[in-house]
Design a protein that fits this description.
Elements (H helix, E strand, L loop, with lengths): L9 E6 L6 H14 L6 E7 L4 H8 L4 E5 L16 H6 L4 E4 L2 H6 L4 H13 L3 E6 L3 H5 L3 H16 L8 E4 L13 H16 L3 H6 L2 E4 L4 H8 L6 E4 L6 H17 L1
Parallel strand pairs: 1-2, 1-8, 2-3, 3-4, 4-5, 5-6, 6-7, 7-8
The chain binds phosphoenolpyruvate.
Phosphoenolpyruvate binds next to strand 8.
Length: about 260
């Protein structure tokens, strides 16, 4: 199925994971602020550890750089030690919340159903959820990539309905490419993105056409242009390279340039 892409918004989002310090964050963010313009049609954002949300809010308010949480609880409040809710993240001006990152799925037991609950919490708090999906190397080698993506997407559709994806973002992140230095080829990324969009289009073509789908997995400034040139790749979710200002800005510029070409 060939769907249009001209109207989709584009974004480059950094995922700092469990990295940062007050001093290091400030240096990094000030370097980004020097390069990312206030008015840009390619969104730029960082998703940071929750203890740093107040600092990031203080430094980025009024800038062209947004911020978000790396996860949210599936609960709103109560006796859930260690959790932080979407509502709390929203109080710190977050625009985004990543849900379903493969590290949450594999290391912390987030099932498809839990991820869908978290997505719903993020929506209810008026955050833009970044819903991560992706197959492991073993699943790809078994030829199960589409089966895995379909299962992950369908769990969300079942919980939130297709309208739940209106205003959300999907990130295709093949697990074998995350933090490994191994990137999906642009053809592999395009194939997976088109499959995800097509799956959602079976429910609502208009929502699927508008849905930004980001690629994540060892994106660097050297490979970003090729990935972002793909018709269904609307930007990137960036781990390691988002910790180095020059690299992250280079990736954002590649997305901005790709947008002009599309
Ligand atoms: C990620 O963790 O979302 C990610 C894509 O990491 P990296 O860019 O380091 O592969």
């Amino acid at each position: 199925m060939v769907l249009g892409f001209a109207m989709r918004s584009k974004a480059v989002v950094g995922n700092w994971k469990l990295n940062g310090s007050l001093a290091g964050n400030e240096t990094l963010l000030r370097a980004l602020l020097r390069e990312i313009p206030r008015d840009t049609d390619v969104a730029c954002a960082v998703c940071v550890p929750s203890p740093y949300l107040a600092q990031v809010q203080g430094l980025l308010t009024g800038s062209g750089i947004g911020w978000g949480a790396q996860d949210v609880s599936r609960h709103d409040q109560g006796a859930y030690t260690g959790e932080a809710s979407a509502r709390m993240a929203a109080e710190f001006g977050c625009r985004y919340a990543i849900v379903g990152h493969s590290e949450r799925r594999t290391l912390f037991g987030d099932t498809d159903a839990i991820v869908a609950e978290k997505y719903a919490r993020a929506r209810a708090a008026k955050l833009t959820p970044i819903f991560c999906v992706g197959e492991t190397l073993e699943e790809r080698e078994r030829g199960d990539t589409e089966k895995v993506l379909a299962r992950q997407v369908d769990a969300l559709l079942e919980r939130c309905g297709v309208s739940g994806l209106d205003g959300g973002i999907v990130a295709y992140e093949p697990v074998w490419a995350i933090g490994t230095g191994r990137t999906a080829t642009s053809a592999q990324a395009q194939e997976a993105h088109a499959f995800i969009r097509g799956r959602i289009a079976q429910k609502d073509r208009g929502i699927a056409e508008k849905l930004p789908t980001l690629y994540g997995g060892s994106v660097k400034s050297s490979n970003a242009a090729e990935l972002f040139a793909m018709p269904d790749v609307d930007g990137g979710l960036v781990g390691g390279a988002s910790l180095v200002a020059e690299d992250f800005v280079g990736i954002w510029r590649a997305a901005r340039d790709a947008r002009k070409g599309k």
